[in-house]
Amino acid sequence: MSTHTDRLHDREFVRTFFTTPTAVKGEDDSAKMLRRAAQLSGIEAPDVWVPDNEDATAPSMRDEGIENIIDVLSEDGDNVPGEVHPRVVWHRESPETRYQGFQQILELADPENDAVEHLDGVVIPEVGDIDDWKKADEFITIVENEHGLEEGSLAMSVIVESGEAELALGDLREEMGKPSNNLERLFLLVDGEVDYTKDMRAITPTGELPPWPELRHNTSRGASAAGLIAIDGPYDDIRDVEGYHERMTDNQAKGMLGIWSLTPGQVVEANKSPLPPKNGSWLLEVDDREIELEAEDGRYVYEGDAIELEEATDDQYRLSVGGDERELDGDELSQELLDLASYIPSLNDIVDSMEEFEAAKEAGKGAIAMERSVTIVIDGVEVEISNDRMWDEATYQAAQTPITLFQDVYENRPDQHEDLEEMYGEDLVERAMVVG
């Protein structure tokens, strides 16, 4: 029995999971949306493209949808920069639907259709307990043998949209690697909050989806334990860019760095979100909100009205935060603002710190202190704050995750090289590819 967490696929990180209807009724070319998606490149193209022959495509159009996937991949598959993982039909409680999914995979993977060379795997929706995952795995194994493909050459991703599937996450680490299955082919664990809400019979006063933080945590944990990649479900308010960013930020703190994208616009936002920012920024926490300070001539200026500061006498200040007023001397004021402040490091900051620690480690030091200082301006009063942060090997490893993600993107998405160099500059990109 295996308990490894080795990743068996080319990608260590997937930022974007972009679904496209496979056949649109009433159009002269029912594959129009597939053809358009296949032409996306650079920052507009997803890491994983999912021609969706399930929920996004009407049942009456799904046979045509499979034909369209084959046509588009055979014609334009070479132009698709990311991986291609069509979603087929499946259901844990319906043998008939599972058989239809098997037939769809069989057709997609037929070498005579000239599409399989562009096919990286398939997405299986509506899975149940771990035995159901094994059924899908067995069907894919049969398809590979039927068409003379190497076993395990087609990846399998599943959509976690039932209580059964969520419980199955805890079984993965033990089940993967058993001689009786090929579950090592698993690639992505994708949350499907809409059907999960239905399966859980959940109700909210507004009818909106619950946020399901527990599901997202459990999926991320299951992915980490089994060497897989966790992806959050669709954010269907496609105009709410700020809400999409908040969702991604919350996910990233759980280790879920990828998200479903419904539009090319969401693809762009999701591709950029996990990457370190171009410029660092300072924040002040006021009333449980973090407010970004404006950078001006090397100083950072607070422009709100929830914090007020005035110099009362020499080295005596009056600070009001959310209506709470205090008299402080210079040192006390610096400490108070330091407690309120936080810093979001840029890619350059992270690379600088890692390079400095690597040099120290090479010189035989196990830990070093790194200082960060800044001038904050509130109501025209300038205050210097600084802090020291100890860097040891654990700190270094934690800082390496965004760099490893950056390197994974750069290595696997040559079509995004120009975008990344435009964002960060060629010199910084070169340093980021070497550090670590």
TrEMBL record:
<dbReference type="GO" id="GO:0003824">
    <property type="term" value="F:catalytic activity"/>
</dbReference>
<dbReference type="InterPro" id="IPR015813">
    <property type="entry name" value="Pyrv/PenolPyrv_kinase-like_dom"/>
</dbReference>
<dbReference type="GO" id="GO:0000287">
    <property type="term" value="F:magnesium ion binding"/>
</dbReference>
<dbReference type="Pfam" id="PF25918">
    <property type="entry name" value="MSH_C"/>
</dbReference>
<dbReference type="InterPro" id="IPR040442">
    <property type="entry name" value="Pyrv_kinase-like_dom_sf"/>
</dbReference>
<dbReference type="InterPro" id="IPR053484">
    <property type="entry name" value="MS"/>
</dbReference>
<keyword id="KW-0460">Magnesium</keyword>
<keyword id="KW-0479">Metal-binding</keyword>
<dbReference type="InterPro" id="IPR059088">
    <property type="entry name" value="MSH_C"/>
</dbReference>
<dbReference type="GO" id="GO:0006107">
    <property type="term" value="P:oxaloacetate metabolic process"/>
</dbReference>
<protein>
    <submittedName>
        <fullName>Malate synthase</fullName>
    </submittedName>
</protein>
<feature type="domain" description="Malate synthase H C-terminal">
    <location>
        <begin position="282"/>
        <end position="397"/>
    </location>
</feature>
<keyword id="KW-0614">Plasmid</keyword>
